[in-house]
Recover the amino acids of this structure.
């Protein structure tokens, strides 16, 4: 005779409870201690202990009331450039729809933003300022682009220049639109990055730009990274993939004025 679901939950060992919580994190991104305690028929104190242990293992970040999954985007740029290429191309096609002639575009480093550089049409009549050598290379010798490459130190595994030189140059720019790179995005926790210098440069880009746009692959949604960049409400345009569930789209629309879905 099969055991009921509740009997199975009641009989969970601590390590099985922790594995179930990690599964919920990977499925939903954010979990709430109170909801998990009710589902697992245990105390919030026990759930918080499990979340603390998972955070110490690097799986999640503790936030008020629960935890967020750590973004999987903490990989070397060379690896990320070859991941989800078709998905990033679809996001890029949607993202470039908001670009207008004669704008100054600030293009942050990152593999999705390299796809945006590719997707910009010839004769776009744009000035593109970027800290990404790869994105700059995609625009060179194409008609309709004035390309300004931001200098500075490029750390091992990074996708673009960082440090004092890059920061000073960004602070001197007044861009119409910035395509900001994001390692993680959550409606409550906002935009985040894995590197302190990268986060500082991204904050400068936000201050130097009239409007902020982010194109995100689904695995970065409802996730966390160590260094805060900007609140979710600072993002004017958020481009997401078609597979994002309707409930998650609704939570994004509650904090961002323009959530646009990239169709396949």
């Amino acid at each position: 005779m099969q055991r009921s679901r509740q009997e199975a939950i009641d009989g969970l060992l601590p390590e099985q409870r922790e594995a179930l919580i990690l599964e919920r994190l990977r499925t939903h991104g954010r979990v709430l201690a109170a909801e998990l305690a009710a589902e697992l028929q245990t105390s919030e104190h026990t759930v918080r202990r499990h979340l603390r242990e998972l955070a110490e293992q690097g799986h999640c970040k503790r936030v008020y009331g629960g935890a967020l999954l750590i973004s999987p985007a903490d990989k070397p740029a060379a690896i990320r450039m070859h991941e989800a290429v078709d998905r990033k191309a679809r996001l890029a096609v949607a993202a470039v729809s908001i670009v207008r002639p004669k704008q100054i575009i600030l293009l942050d480093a990152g593999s999705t933003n390299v796809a945006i550089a590719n997707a910009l049409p010839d004769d776009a009549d744009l000035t593109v300022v970027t800290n990404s050598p790869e994105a700059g290379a995609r625009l060179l010798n194409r008609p309709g682009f004035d390309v300004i490459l931001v200098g500075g130190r490029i750390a091992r595994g990074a996708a673009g220049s960082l440090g004092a030189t890059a920061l000073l140059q960004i602070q001197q720019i007044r861009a119409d639109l910035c395509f900001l790179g994001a390692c993680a995005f959550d409606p409550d926790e906002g935009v985040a990055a894995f590197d302190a210098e990268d986060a500082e440069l991204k904050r400068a880009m936000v201050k130097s730009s009239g409007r902020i746009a982010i194109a995100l692959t689904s695995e970065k949604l409802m996730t966390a990274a160590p260094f805060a960049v900007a609140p979710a409400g600072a993002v004017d345009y958020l481009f997401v993939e078609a597979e994002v569930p309707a409930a998650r789209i609704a939570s994004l629309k509650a904090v961002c004025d323009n959530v646009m879905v990239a169709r396949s």
About this structure: The mean pLDDT is 91. Residues 5-70 form a domain with the Arc Repressor Mutant, subunit A fold (CATH 1.10.10.10). The first strand starts at residue 30 and ends at 32.
